[in-house]
Design brief:
Pfam families: Abhydrolase_1. This protein has 300 residues and is α/β, with parallel strands linked by helices. 44% of the residues lie in helices and 16% in strands. The protein contains 13 helices and 8 strands. It has an 8-stranded mixed beta sheet, sandwiched between helices.
């Protein structure tokens, strides 16, 4: 089995196709299998790489808290790229993987061709930070006490995931089955160290404002915990565009695979052809009507 060595863990990866590379980075509740519909599509023209995060077998499941956390997330992407001899790649992430994708863009901008961050932002708004941390820690303990199978179905019925059940019951069942197979220890440590302790994306406002990488932000309009953060990122990143997918929850790539693939393909094509543009400064801070000028009489 192919592995990339990162700090404190070996990461299992798979690659399919040839061409410019795309690295897919999965969310907390998923693993590399949830990118299957993207790999089948993009591998026709791209070299697709996906890997399991630390704590997700067959990647290693370290038993030390210190070997988990957002600090490792960008480094793990880099380790997979280095193992495969990839100098630059498009990075596509969902949720926890989208957080890692954005961190990679900030820490290693010279190694990224572009960033796609889908469903990013849970727990980022400052008013929910304390609650999000407590919820993550409580769920971590439940994974240890009850095991992954007991948690999987409950997570699948969460407010931002029931959309998948409604649209694609078979896809939802596969998601739940995959989640039930996850390591309870790996999930618990990921929740405690990565989810609960990662800084808010709002803390990186200056860094995002300086980021020059082409970026596509994707969020479902029913993914309430992520909407505010995506608006913040759109307003802050001058090279970002925001795509809000109607009638869609958290796992955009699973709920709307055809639309997701088409939207991301259009973005990657624009980047590869050099057609992705920064935001026109005239579009910032104004409205749909011209600014009113003082009347001639008022000038006298």
């Amino acid at each position: 089995m192919p592995y990339a060595k990162s700090k404190g863990a070996r990461l299992y990866f798979e690659e399919t196709g040839s061409g410019r590379p795309i690295v897919f980075v999965h969310e907390f509740g998923a693993d590399l299998r949830e990118w299957e519909q993207q790999v089948r599509w993009f591998s026709r023209e791209y070299r697709c790489i996906r890997f399991n995060a630390r704590g997700y077998p067959p990647s290693d499941v370290p038993e030390s808290d210190d070997l988990y956390g957002y600090e490792h997330s960008a480094g793990d992407i880099l380790a997979v790229m280095d193992e495969l001899g990839i100098e630059r790649a498009h990075i596509v992430g969902l949720s926890m993987g989208a957080y890692a994708t954005l961190q990679f863009g900030l820490r290693h901008p010279g190694r990224a061709l572009s960033l796609v961050a889908a469903g990013v932002g849970s727990g980022a708004p400052r008013e929910v930070r304390v609650e999000f941390k407590a919820h993550s820690e409580a769920l971590a303990q439940r994974f240890l006490n009850e095991g992954s199978p007991a948690i999987a179905r409950e997570m699948g019925l969460a407010a931002t995931r029931v959309q998948l059940l409604t649209k694609d019951p078979r896809g939802w069942q596969a998601f739940v089955e995959h989640l039930s197979e996850h390591s309870a220890v790996g999930s618990a440590y990921t929740l405690r160290r990565y989810q609960a302790l990662r800084p808010s994306l709002f803390d990186f406002e200056a860094e995002f404002a300086a980021c020059a990488l082409p970026t596509l932000l994707v969020v479902g309009d029913e993914d309430d915990p992520c909407l505010e953060t995506n608006l913040f990122l759109k307003r802050t990143m001058r090279t970002a565009q925001l795509w809000v997918v109607p009638g869609t929850g958290h796992a955009v790539n699973l709920e709307e695979p055809a639309a997701f693939n088409a939207g991301v393909q259009g973005f990657l094509s624009a980047v590869d052809r050099g057609c992705w543009r920064t935001r026109d400064p005239r579009a910032v801070g104004g409205g749909a009507l011209p600014v009113a000028r003082a009347s001639a009489s008022a000038d006298k």
